[in-house]
Amino acid sequence: MLQLANTLDKVNLGVAYVVRWLALAMMLVQFTIVVGRYAFGLNSIALQESVLYMHATLFMLAAGYTLLVDKHVRVDVFYAKVSAAAQRRIDIFGHLFLLMPSMIALIYWSWPSVRNSWAIFEGPISVGGIEAVFLLKSLIPVFAVLVILQSLALLIRLLAVKVP
């Protein structure tokens, strides 16, 4: 089972390895937009939207990796003050009854919008923008699947550890 958890980790590690470059690309594109606008009086709605697309892609696809490296937001009012065994029980409960059901609900409720967007190849957000809103909306279920996979990997490890 731990081999399955390691394989699931590799999915999010691979995705993070690819999308991390979007942070650099976003910075360079945003710099180009600012220089173009203020130095040359040029403006491009599509270029501005590309920053939005890159930011959304980076945020949504790196969420599973963030969970993997334990850098997600944790409300640890009680968590930090309890024993390792209690932390393990809290984590198991959180994965099984909070995180996974939330992600499944997100897939369920977002899927009709994603499907409809693909059916019409939904166009740009703004006039002159990128004609690929259907790709942007597709990030929602992909995000949920990546988080579910990482949650499953963490859950396997939690259940494999024997705590006295």
TrEMBL record:
Keyword terms: Cell inner membrane, Cell membrane, Membrane, Transmembrane, Transmembrane helix, Transport
Subcellular location field: Cell inner membrane
Primary localisation category: membrane
Topological relation to the membrane, as annotated: Multi-pass membrane protein
Coiled-coil portions: none
rRNA processing keyword on record: no
Pfam families (UniProt xref): DctQ (PF04290)
Membrane-spanning intervals of the chain: 21-40, 52-69, 90-111, 139-160
Residue ranges constituting the Tripartite ATP-independent periplasmic transporters DctQ component domain according to the UniProt record: 26-159
GO MF terms held by the record: transmembrane transporter activity
InterPro entries referenced in this protein's UniProt entry, alphabetically: DctQ, TRAP_DctQ
Quaternary assembly: The complex comprises the extracytoplasmic solute receptor protein and the two transmembrane proteins.
Family: Belongs to the TRAP transporter small permease family.
Functional note: Part of the tripartite ATP-independent periplasmic (TRAP) transport system.
Protein name in UniProt: TRAP transporter small permease protein
Organism: Sulfitobacter delicatus
